Amino acid sequence: MKRVVITGAGTINPLGQTVPETLAAMREGRCGISDLEFRDVERLAIHIGGQIKGYDAEAHFNRQQLSLYDRFTQFALLAAREAIGQAGLEFHGQLADTSGVVMGTSGGGLTTQDENYRSVYEEGKNRVHPFVVPKLMNNAAASHMSMEFNLRGPSFTVATACASSNHAMGMAFQMVRSGACPVMVTGGSESMLCFGGVKAWEGLRVMSKDACRPFSANRNGMVQGEGAGVFVFEEYEHARARGAEILAEVAGFAMTSDASDIVMPSKQGAARAIAGALRDGRIDRNSVGYINAHGTGTAANDKTECAAVADVFGHHADALMISSTKSMHGHLIGGTGAVELLACIMALRDGVIAPTIGYEEPDPECALDVVPNEAREAKVDVVLSNAFAFGGLNAVLALRNP
Amino acid sequence: MDIKDKVIAIIADQAVLEPSDVTLDSTLDTLGIDSLGLVESIFAIEEAFDISVPFNANDPSESDFDISTVASIVAGVERLVAEQKS
Protein backbone atom coordinates (compact mmCIF):
# COMPACT_ATOMS: atom_id res chain seq x y z
CA MET A 1 0.00 0.00 0.00
CA LYS A 2 1.19 3.47 -0.91
CA ARG A 3 1.29 6.45 1.42
CA VAL A 4 -0.90 9.40 0.46
CA VAL A 5 -0.01 13.05 1.07
CA ILE A 6 -1.67 16.40 0.37
CA THR A 7 0.47 18.71 -1.78
CA GLY A 8 -2.03 21.43 -2.65
CA ALA A 9 -5.09 23.10 -1.16
CA GLY A 10 -7.56 25.61 -2.54
CA THR A 11 -10.85 27.13 -1.48
CA ILE A 12 -13.47 29.79 -1.84
CA ASN A 13 -15.97 30.05 1.00
CA PRO A 14 -17.72 32.67 3.15
CA LEU A 15 -14.52 33.22 5.17
CA GLY A 16 -12.18 33.89 2.25
CA GLN A 17 -11.52 33.44 -1.43
CA THR A 18 -8.14 31.71 -0.87
CA VAL A 19 -6.66 29.30 1.69
CA PRO A 20 -4.54 31.97 3.48
CA GLU A 21 -7.57 34.29 3.81
CA THR A 22 -9.67 31.42 5.16
CA LEU A 23 -7.09 30.29 7.71
CA ALA A 24 -6.61 33.87 8.90
CA ALA A 25 -10.37 34.15 9.46
CA MET A 26 -10.47 30.83 11.34
CA ARG A 27 -7.57 31.98 13.53
CA GLU A 28 -9.40 35.19 14.34
CA GLY A 29 -12.69 33.37 14.91
CA ARG A 30 -14.38 35.60 12.37
CA CYS A 31 -17.99 34.91 11.34
CA GLY A 32 -18.75 34.68 7.61
CA ILE A 33 -22.51 34.38 8.11
CA SER A 34 -24.49 37.42 6.99
CA ASP A 35 -27.79 38.54 5.46
CA LEU A 36 -28.73 36.53 2.37
CA GLU A 37 -28.95 38.48 -0.88
CA PHE A 38 -30.86 36.95 -3.80
CA ARG A 39 -34.18 37.26 -5.58
CA ASP A 40 -37.32 36.60 -3.49
CA VAL A 41 -35.34 36.36 -0.23
CA GLU A 42 -38.15 38.36 1.45
CA ARG A 43 -40.46 35.37 0.96
CA LEU A 44 -38.26 33.22 3.20
CA ALA A 45 -38.44 32.81 6.98
CA ILE A 46 -34.64 32.34 7.12
CA HIS A 47 -32.63 35.39 6.15
CA ILE A 48 -29.04 34.46 7.06
CA GLY A 49 -26.42 32.24 5.45
CA GLY A 50 -22.75 31.77 4.75
CA GLN A 51 -22.99 33.48 1.38
CA ILE A 52 -19.83 34.40 -0.54
CA LYS A 53 -19.93 38.18 -0.86
CA GLY A 54 -17.82 40.42 -3.05
CA TYR A 55 -17.45 37.67 -5.62
CA ASP A 56 -17.14 38.73 -9.25
CA ALA A 57 -17.55 35.73 -11.56
CA GLU A 58 -16.55 37.78 -14.61
CA ALA A 59 -13.16 38.49 -13.07
CA HIS A 60 -12.36 34.77 -13.33
CA PHE A 61 -14.34 33.41 -16.28
CA ASN A 62 -15.27 34.64 -19.75
CA ARG A 63 -18.83 34.90 -21.07
CA GLN A 64 -18.69 31.59 -22.92
CA GLN A 65 -17.47 29.78 -19.80
CA LEU A 66 -20.14 31.40 -17.64
CA SER A 67 -22.87 30.13 -19.97
CA LEU A 68 -21.71 26.61 -18.98
CA TYR A 69 -20.58 27.08 -15.35
CA ASP A 70 -23.15 27.05 -12.56
CA ARG A 71 -21.96 28.79 -9.39
CA PHE A 72 -20.92 25.43 -7.85
CA THR A 73 -18.74 24.70 -10.89
CA GLN A 74 -17.17 28.16 -10.70
CA PHE A 75 -16.31 27.61 -7.03
CA ALA A 76 -14.82 24.18 -7.76
CA LEU A 77 -12.64 25.53 -10.57
CA LEU A 78 -11.35 28.45 -8.50
CA ALA A 79 -10.45 26.15 -5.61
CA ALA A 80 -8.82 23.68 -8.02
CA ARG A 81 -6.70 26.43 -9.60
CA GLU A 82 -5.35 27.40 -6.19
CA ALA A 83 -4.71 23.77 -5.13
CA ILE A 84 -3.05 22.62 -8.34
CA GLY A 85 -1.08 25.87 -8.51
CA GLN A 86 0.29 25.25 -5.03
CA ALA A 87 1.13 21.63 -5.84
CA GLY A 88 3.04 22.85 -8.89
CA LEU A 89 1.80 19.97 -11.02
CA GLU A 90 1.17 19.89 -14.76
CA PHE A 91 -0.58 16.91 -16.23
CA HIS A 92 0.87 15.37 -19.39
CA GLY A 93 1.33 11.86 -20.80
CA GLN A 94 1.13 8.96 -18.37
CA LEU A 95 0.54 11.22 -15.35
CA ALA A 96 -2.45 12.83 -17.08
CA ASP A 97 -3.85 9.45 -18.16
CA THR A 98 -3.79 8.03 -14.63
CA SER A 99 -4.79 11.09 -12.57
CA GLY A 100 -8.41 12.11 -12.04
CA VAL A 101 -11.00 14.05 -10.08
CA VAL A 102 -13.44 12.96 -7.36
CA MET A 103 -15.74 15.72 -6.18
CA GLY A 104 -18.56 15.80 -3.68
CA THR A 105 -21.74 17.81 -4.10
CA SER A 106 -25.30 17.46 -2.94
CA GLY A 107 -27.29 19.98 -4.96
CA GLY A 108 -25.05 20.26 -8.03
CA GLY A 109 -26.31 23.06 -10.26
CA LEU A 110 -29.25 23.88 -8.04
CA THR A 111 -29.13 27.60 -8.81
CA THR A 112 -29.42 26.80 -12.52
CA GLN A 113 -32.42 24.54 -11.83
CA ASP A 114 -34.04 27.19 -9.66
CA GLU A 115 -33.62 29.95 -12.23
CA ASN A 116 -34.92 27.84 -15.10
CA TYR A 117 -37.91 26.38 -13.23
CA ARG A 118 -38.83 29.94 -12.30
CA SER A 119 -38.60 31.00 -15.91
CA VAL A 120 -40.84 28.22 -17.26
CA TYR A 121 -43.30 27.90 -14.36
CA GLU A 122 -43.55 31.40 -12.90
CA GLU A 123 -42.75 33.54 -15.89
CA GLY A 124 -44.47 31.19 -18.32
CA LYS A 125 -41.61 31.10 -20.81
CA ASN A 126 -41.55 28.16 -23.14
CA ARG A 127 -37.89 28.13 -24.08
CA VAL A 128 -34.77 27.59 -21.93
CA HIS A 129 -31.08 28.14 -22.63
CA PRO A 130 -29.57 25.18 -24.55
CA PHE A 131 -26.95 24.49 -21.83
CA VAL A 132 -29.31 24.02 -18.88
CA VAL A 133 -28.61 20.28 -18.63
CA PRO A 134 -24.78 20.37 -18.87
CA LYS A 135 -24.81 23.30 -16.45
CA LEU A 136 -26.97 21.72 -13.75
CA MET A 137 -25.67 18.15 -13.78
CA ASN A 138 -23.94 17.04 -10.57
CA ASN A 139 -20.78 15.99 -12.38
CA ALA A 140 -20.34 19.34 -14.16
CA ALA A 141 -17.72 20.56 -11.67
CA ALA A 142 -15.64 17.37 -11.84
CA SER A 143 -15.86 17.34 -15.63
CA HIS A 144 -14.79 20.96 -16.07
CA MET A 145 -11.91 20.39 -13.64
CA SER A 146 -10.77 17.41 -15.71
CA MET A 147 -10.90 19.56 -18.87
CA GLU A 148 -9.12 22.59 -17.45
CA PHE A 149 -6.24 20.54 -16.02
CA ASN A 150 -6.07 17.65 -18.50
CA LEU A 151 -6.92 15.01 -15.89
CA ARG A 152 -7.75 12.00 -18.07
CA GLY A 153 -7.95 9.14 -15.54
CA PRO A 154 -10.89 8.12 -13.30
CA SER A 155 -13.20 11.03 -12.55
CA PHE A 156 -16.62 11.07 -10.92
CA THR A 157 -18.92 12.82 -8.46
CA VAL A 158 -20.13 11.54 -5.11
CA ALA A 159 -23.44 12.61 -3.60
CA THR A 160 -24.02 11.70 0.04
CA ALA A 161 -25.63 14.95 1.22
CA CYS A 162 -23.62 16.47 4.07
CA ALA A 163 -20.89 13.82 3.85
CA SER A 164 -20.30 14.13 0.08
CA SER A 165 -16.87 15.79 0.38
CA ASN A 166 -15.57 13.29 2.91
CA HIS A 167 -16.80 10.37 0.84
CA ALA A 168 -15.18 11.92 -2.25
CA MET A 169 -11.84 12.51 -0.52
CA GLY A 170 -12.00 9.03 0.98
CA MET A 171 -12.41 7.54 -2.51
CA ALA A 172 -9.50 9.61 -3.82
CA PHE A 173 -7.39 8.47 -0.86
CA GLN A 174 -8.15 4.81 -1.55
CA MET A 175 -7.35 5.21 -5.24
CA VAL A 176 -3.94 6.74 -4.56
CA ARG A 177 -3.19 4.35 -1.70
CA SER A 178 -3.97 1.32 -3.86
CA GLY A 179 -1.46 2.47 -6.48
CA ALA A 180 -4.15 2.94 -9.14
CA CYS A 181 -3.54 6.69 -9.43
CA PRO A 182 -0.44 8.78 -8.65
CA VAL A 183 -2.49 11.94 -8.15
CA MET A 184 -6.18 12.63 -7.47
CA VAL A 185 -7.72 16.08 -7.30
CA THR A 186 -10.54 15.94 -4.78
CA GLY A 187 -12.89 17.84 -2.47
CA GLY A 188 -16.37 19.25 -2.75
CA SER A 189 -18.42 22.18 -3.92
CA GLU A 190 -21.89 23.48 -3.14
CA SER A 191 -24.07 26.46 -3.94
CA MET A 192 -27.65 26.06 -2.70
CA LEU A 193 -28.21 29.63 -1.58
CA CYS A 194 -31.07 30.51 -3.88
CA PHE A 195 -34.79 30.88 -3.15
CA GLY A 196 -35.73 27.26 -3.85
CA GLY A 197 -32.63 25.90 -2.12
CA VAL A 198 -33.27 27.67 1.17
CA LYS A 199 -37.06 27.26 0.97
CA ALA A 200 -36.67 23.48 0.84
CA TRP A 201 -34.47 23.50 3.95
CA GLU A 202 -36.90 25.77 5.78
CA GLY A 203 -39.56 23.09 5.46
CA LEU A 204 -37.62 20.75 7.72
CA ARG A 205 -37.64 23.38 10.52
CA VAL A 206 -34.06 22.75 11.57
CA MET A 207 -32.64 26.10 10.48
CA SER A 208 -31.59 28.86 12.84
CA LYS A 209 -32.84 32.39 12.23
CA ASP A 210 -29.96 34.07 14.07
CA ALA A 211 -26.70 32.07 14.33
CA CYS A 212 -25.02 28.67 14.19
CA ARG A 213 -23.96 27.83 17.77
CA PRO A 214 -22.64 24.25 17.78
CA PHE A 215 -22.48 22.50 21.17
CA SER A 216 -23.94 25.51 22.98
CA ALA A 217 -26.99 24.69 25.16
CA ASN A 218 -28.97 27.46 23.44
CA ARG A 219 -28.20 26.27 19.90
CA ASN A 220 -31.23 26.44 17.66
CA GLY A 221 -30.28 24.95 14.33
CA MET A 222 -28.06 24.99 11.32
CA VAL A 223 -27.13 27.81 8.96
CA GLN A 224 -26.48 27.04 5.31
CA GLY A 225 -23.30 28.11 3.53
CA GLU A 226 -21.76 27.83 0.08
CA GLY A 227 -18.33 27.36 -1.42
CA ALA A 228 -15.71 24.77 -2.33
CA GLY A 229 -12.55 23.14 -1.10
CA VAL A 230 -10.17 21.20 -3.36
CA PHE A 231 -7.01 19.25 -2.53
CA VAL A 232 -4.26 17.48 -4.43
CA PHE A 233 -3.82 13.97 -3.03
CA GLU A 234 -0.49 12.58 -4.22
CA GLU A 235 1.39 9.35 -3.73
CA TYR A 236 4.17 10.03 -1.19
CA GLU A 237 7.19 8.87 -3.26
CA HIS A 238 5.86 10.77 -6.28
CA ALA A 239 5.66 13.95 -4.21
CA ARG A 240 9.07 13.40 -2.62
CA ALA A 241 10.78 12.68 -5.94
CA ARG A 242 9.76 16.07 -7.27
CA GLY A 243 10.51 17.90 -4.01
CA ALA A 244 6.91 18.94 -3.42
CA GLU A 245 5.91 20.61 -0.19
CA ILE A 246 3.79 18.21 1.86
CA LEU A 247 0.90 19.79 3.77
CA ALA A 248 -0.27 16.64 5.58
CA GLU A 249 -0.54 12.89 5.23
CA VAL A 250 -3.94 11.26 4.76
CA ALA A 251 -3.64 8.35 7.17
CA GLY A 252 -7.01 6.64 7.36
CA PHE A 253 -10.61 6.65 6.22
CA ALA A 254 -13.81 4.82 7.06
CA MET A 255 -17.45 5.01 6.08
CA THR A 256 -20.53 3.45 7.66
CA SER A 257 -24.30 3.53 7.28
CA ASP A 258 -26.67 3.91 10.23
CA ALA A 259 -29.34 1.92 8.39
CA SER A 260 -31.91 3.39 10.75
CA ASP A 261 -33.49 6.80 10.04
CA ILE A 262 -33.57 9.21 7.09
CA VAL A 263 -32.81 12.30 9.21
CA MET A 264 -32.07 11.40 12.83
CA PRO A 265 -28.39 10.62 13.49
CA SER A 266 -27.21 7.46 15.23
CA LYS A 267 -24.46 7.32 17.84
CA GLN A 268 -23.49 3.80 16.78
CA GLY A 269 -23.11 4.70 13.10
CA ALA A 270 -20.96 7.72 13.91
CA ALA A 271 -18.84 5.81 16.43
CA ARG A 272 -18.25 2.95 14.00
CA ALA A 273 -17.01 5.43 11.37
CA ILE A 274 -14.65 7.18 13.80
CA ALA A 275 -13.28 3.89 15.16
CA GLY A 276 -13.01 2.56 11.60
CA ALA A 277 -10.86 5.49 10.45
CA LEU A 278 -8.49 4.92 13.38
CA ARG A 279 -8.27 1.21 12.61
CA ASP A 280 -7.74 1.87 8.89
CA GLY A 281 -4.82 4.20 9.66
CA ARG A 282 -3.46 1.96 12.47
CA ILE A 283 -3.77 5.01 14.72
CA ASP A 284 -3.62 4.81 18.51
CA ARG A 285 -6.73 6.65 19.69
CA ASN A 286 -4.71 8.38 22.40
CA SER A 287 -2.64 10.14 19.74
CA VAL A 288 -5.63 12.03 18.31
CA GLY A 289 -5.32 15.67 19.37
CA TYR A 290 -8.09 17.36 17.42
CA ILE A 291 -11.39 16.48 15.75
CA ASN A 292 -13.07 18.79 13.29
CA ALA A 293 -16.65 17.99 14.25
CA HIS A 294 -19.61 17.62 11.98
CA GLY A 295 -21.14 20.02 14.58
CA THR A 296 -24.13 21.35 12.67
CA GLY A 297 -25.66 23.29 15.58
CA THR A 298 -28.82 21.19 15.60
CA ALA A 299 -30.04 19.71 18.87
CA ALA A 300 -29.80 16.15 17.57
CA ASN A 301 -26.44 16.14 15.77
CA ASP A 302 -24.29 17.78 18.40
CA LYS A 303 -25.32 15.62 21.34
CA THR A 304 -25.15 12.43 19.27
CA GLU A 305 -21.71 13.33 17.92
CA CYS A 306 -20.34 14.08 21.40
CA ALA A 307 -21.71 10.77 22.68
CA ALA A 308 -20.06 8.93 19.77
CA VAL A 309 -16.70 10.61 20.46
CA ALA A 310 -16.98 9.76 24.16
CA ASP A 311 -17.74 6.14 23.25
CA VAL A 312 -14.76 5.73 20.92
CA PHE A 313 -12.14 7.61 22.96
CA GLY A 314 -13.16 6.80 26.56
CA HIS A 315 -11.10 8.93 29.00
CA HIS A 316 -9.09 10.44 26.15
CA ALA A 317 -12.28 12.21 24.94
CA ASP A 318 -11.71 14.73 27.75
CA ALA A 319 -8.14 15.40 26.63
CA LEU A 320 -8.71 16.00 22.94
CA MET A 321 -10.11 19.15 21.32
CA ILE A 322 -13.17 19.14 19.07
CA SER A 323 -14.49 22.21 17.29
CA SER A 324 -17.06 23.04 14.64
CA THR A 325 -15.99 25.63 12.09
CA LYS A 326 -19.56 25.62 10.72
CA SER A 327 -20.11 28.30 13.36
CA MET A 328 -18.02 30.56 11.09
CA HIS A 329 -18.72 29.43 7.50
CA GLY A 330 -22.08 27.72 7.89
CA HIS A 331 -22.95 24.26 6.60
CA LEU A 332 -21.64 23.91 3.05
CA ILE A 333 -23.58 20.62 2.69
CA GLY A 334 -21.76 18.66 -0.04
CA GLY A 335 -18.74 20.97 0.15
CA THR A 336 -18.46 21.18 3.89
CA GLY A 337 -15.94 18.44 4.66
CA ALA A 338 -13.51 19.89 2.12
CA VAL A 339 -13.51 23.39 3.63
CA GLU A 340 -13.32 21.85 7.11
CA LEU A 341 -10.25 19.83 6.12
CA LEU A 342 -8.43 23.18 5.96
CA ALA A 343 -8.91 23.53 9.73
CA CYS A 344 -7.40 20.05 10.13
CA ILE A 345 -4.35 20.99 8.06
CA MET A 346 -3.95 24.24 10.03
CA ALA A 347 -4.01 22.27 13.28
CA LEU A 348 -1.26 19.92 12.08
CA ARG A 349 0.98 22.43 10.30
CA ASP A 350 0.53 25.67 12.20
CA GLY A 351 -0.44 24.31 15.62
CA VAL A 352 -3.57 26.48 15.62
CA ILE A 353 -6.94 24.95 16.54
CA ALA A 354 -9.88 26.74 14.92
CA PRO A 355 -12.56 27.70 17.46
CA THR A 356 -16.28 26.99 17.76
CA ILE A 357 -17.58 30.55 17.76
CA GLY A 358 -21.01 31.67 19.01
CA TYR A 359 -20.59 29.41 22.04
CA GLU A 360 -22.67 30.84 24.88
CA GLU A 361 -23.84 28.17 27.33
CA PRO A 362 -22.36 24.78 28.22
CA ASP A 363 -24.58 21.81 27.41
CA PRO A 364 -24.08 18.81 29.72
CA GLU A 365 -24.80 16.57 26.71
CA CYS A 366 -21.84 18.14 24.84
CA ALA A 367 -19.32 18.14 27.68
CA LEU A 368 -16.12 18.05 25.60
CA ASP A 369 -13.43 20.68 24.98
CA VAL A 370 -15.09 22.44 22.05
CA VAL A 371 -12.45 25.22 21.84
CA PRO A 372 -15.06 27.91 22.56
CA ASN A 373 -14.93 31.24 20.77
CA GLU A 374 -11.14 31.68 20.50
CA ALA A 375 -8.56 29.78 18.50
CA ARG A 376 -5.95 27.96 20.55
CA GLU A 377 -2.29 27.16 20.01
CA ALA A 378 -1.59 23.47 20.48
CA LYS A 379 0.72 20.90 18.96
CA VAL A 380 -1.23 17.97 17.55
CA ASP A 381 0.02 14.97 15.58
CA VAL A 382 -3.18 13.28 14.44
CA VAL A 383 -6.53 14.88 13.57
CA LEU A 384 -9.91 13.61 12.39
CA SER A 385 -12.63 15.17 10.25
CA ASN A 386 -16.18 13.94 10.87
CA ALA A 387 -19.09 14.04 8.44
CA PHE A 388 -22.48 12.49 9.20
CA ALA A 389 -25.10 12.90 6.49
CA PHE A 390 -28.88 12.83 6.32
CA GLY A 391 -29.71 9.31 5.28
CA GLY A 392 -27.32 7.99 7.93
CA LEU A 393 -24.21 7.93 5.74
CA ASN A 394 -21.03 8.64 7.70
CA ALA A 395 -17.46 9.32 6.53
CA VAL A 396 -14.43 10.08 8.69
CA LEU A 397 -10.93 10.99 7.53
CA ALA A 398 -7.73 10.85 9.61
CA LEU A 399 -4.76 13.11 8.86
CA ARG A 400 -1.31 13.27 10.44
CA ASN A 401 2.00 15.03 10.06
CA PRO A 402 4.11 13.00 7.60
CA MET B 1 -65.93 21.05 11.11
CA ASP B 2 -64.55 23.34 13.80
CA ILE B 3 -60.84 23.98 14.46
CA LYS B 4 -60.60 21.30 17.15
CA ASP B 5 -62.07 18.57 14.93
CA LYS B 6 -59.92 19.59 11.98
CA VAL B 7 -56.70 19.54 14.06
CA ILE B 8 -57.66 16.17 15.52
CA ALA B 9 -58.35 14.82 12.03
CA ILE B 10 -54.87 15.93 10.88
CA ILE B 11 -53.15 14.41 13.90
CA ALA B 12 -55.16 11.18 13.61
CA ASP B 13 -54.20 10.92 9.96
CA GLN B 14 -50.52 11.30 10.86
CA ALA B 15 -50.81 8.74 13.67
CA VAL B 16 -52.78 6.32 11.46
CA LEU B 17 -55.61 6.28 14.00
CA GLU B 18 -59.34 7.02 13.95
CA PRO B 19 -60.15 10.61 15.06
CA SER B 20 -62.17 9.06 17.89
CA ASP B 21 -58.95 7.53 19.28
CA VAL B 22 -57.33 10.97 19.61
CA THR B 23 -58.35 12.79 22.78
CA LEU B 24 -57.51 16.29 23.92
CA ASP B 25 -55.16 15.00 26.60
CA SER B 26 -53.23 12.71 24.22
CA THR B 27 -49.57 13.60 23.68
CA LEU B 28 -47.72 13.12 20.41
CA ASP B 29 -45.59 10.52 22.19
CA THR B 30 -48.57 8.42 23.24
CA LEU B 31 -49.96 8.70 19.70
CA GLY B 32 -46.65 7.44 18.30
CA ILE B 33 -45.86 10.58 16.29
CA ASP B 34 -42.07 11.07 15.94
CA SER B 35 -40.14 14.24 15.03
CA LEU B 36 -40.69 13.84 11.28
CA GLY B 37 -44.40 13.14 11.87
CA LEU B 38 -44.60 16.28 13.98
CA VAL B 39 -43.04 18.44 11.25
CA GLU B 40 -45.48 16.93 8.73
CA SER B 41 -48.46 17.56 11.04
CA ILE B 42 -47.47 21.20 11.45
CA PHE B 43 -47.15 21.54 7.70
CA ALA B 44 -50.64 20.05 7.24
CA ILE B 45 -52.05 22.41 9.89
CA GLU B 46 -50.46 25.43 8.17
CA GLU B 47 -51.94 24.36 4.85
CA ALA B 48 -55.40 23.63 6.28
CA PHE B 49 -55.78 26.95 8.14
CA ASP B 50 -53.54 29.11 5.96
CA ILE B 51 -51.48 30.14 8.98
CA SER B 52 -47.77 30.17 9.80
CA VAL B 53 -46.83 28.14 12.90
CA PRO B 54 -43.71 29.34 14.74
CA PHE B 55 -41.94 26.06 15.41
CA ASN B 56 -38.26 25.05 15.43
CA ALA B 57 -37.57 21.30 15.62
CA ASN B 58 -34.30 21.97 17.45
CA ASP B 59 -36.06 23.22 20.51
CA PRO B 60 -39.79 22.47 20.61
CA SER B 61 -40.05 23.64 24.23
CA GLU B 62 -38.71 27.11 23.38
CA SER B 63 -40.94 27.59 20.36
CA ASP B 64 -43.92 29.94 20.72
CA PHE B 65 -46.16 27.01 19.82
CA ASP B 66 -46.94 24.52 22.59
CA ILE B 67 -47.05 20.94 21.33
CA SER B 68 -47.22 19.15 24.69
CA THR B 69 -50.78 17.85 24.18
CA VAL B 70 -53.47 17.79 21.51
CA ALA B 71 -55.36 20.40 23.59
CA SER B 72 -52.37 22.78 23.58
CA ILE B 73 -51.97 22.37 19.83
CA VAL B 74 -55.68 23.11 19.28
CA ALA B 75 -55.40 26.20 21.54
CA GLY B 76 -52.32 27.36 19.62
CA VAL B 77 -54.05 26.98 16.28
CA GLU B 78 -57.16 28.80 17.55
CA ARG B 79 -54.96 31.71 18.68
CA LEU B 80 -53.13 31.87 15.35
CA VAL B 81 -56.38 31.73 13.36
CA ALA B 82 -57.85 34.53 15.54
CA GLU B 83 -54.71 36.65 15.11
CA GLN B 84 -54.86 36.15 11.38
CA LYS B 85 -58.47 37.38 11.24
CA SER B 86 -57.79 40.49 13.33
Structure explained in plain terms:
With 402 residues, chain A is an alpha/beta fold. Chain A folds into two domains: 4-241, Peroxisomal Thiolase, Chain A, domain 1 (3-Layer(aba) Sandwich); 256-400, Thiolase/Chalcone synthase (Peroxisomal Thiolase, Chain A, domain 1, 3-Layer(aba) Sandwich), CATH 3.40.47. Chain A contains 14 helices and 14 strands. Chain A has helices at residues 19-28, 63-66, 71-87, 93-98, 110-122, 132-136, 140-149, 164-177, 195-203, 236-241, 267-280, 299-313, 326-329, 336-350; strands at residues 4-12, 34-35, 48-49, 100-104, 156-158, 183-190, 227-235, 248-257, 288-292, 321-323, 352-353, 376-377, 382-389, 393-400. In chain A, the strands form three sheets. Chain A has a ten-stranded mixed sheet, sandwiched between helices. In chain A, a hairpin with a 3-residue loop joins strand 13 (382-389) and strand 14. The two termini of chain A are 16 Å apart. By secondary structure, chain B is mainly α. Chain B has one domain (3-85): Non-ribosomal Peptide Synthetase Peptidyl Carrier Protein, Chain A (Orthogonal Bundle). Helix content of chain B is 56%, strand content 0%. Chain B has four helices and no strands. Chain B has helices at residues 3-15, 28-31, 35-49, 70-85. In chain B, helix 1 (3-15) runs antiparallel to helix 3 and helix 1 crosses helix 4. In chain B, 24% of the residues are buried. At the A-B interface, loops of A face helix 3 of B.
